Amino acid sequence: MSKKILMLVGDYAEDYETMVPFQALQMIGHQVDAVCPDKAKGDYIMTAIHDFDGAQTYSEKPGHRFVLNANFTGVKEADYDALLIPGGRAPEYLRLNEQVLELVRDFDQAGKPIAAVCHGPQLLAAAGILKGRTCSAYPACAPEVRLSGGEYADIGIDQAHVDGNLVTAPAWPAHPQWLAKFAEVLQK
Question: Where do transmembrane segments lie in this chain (predicted)?
Answer without folding.
Answer: none
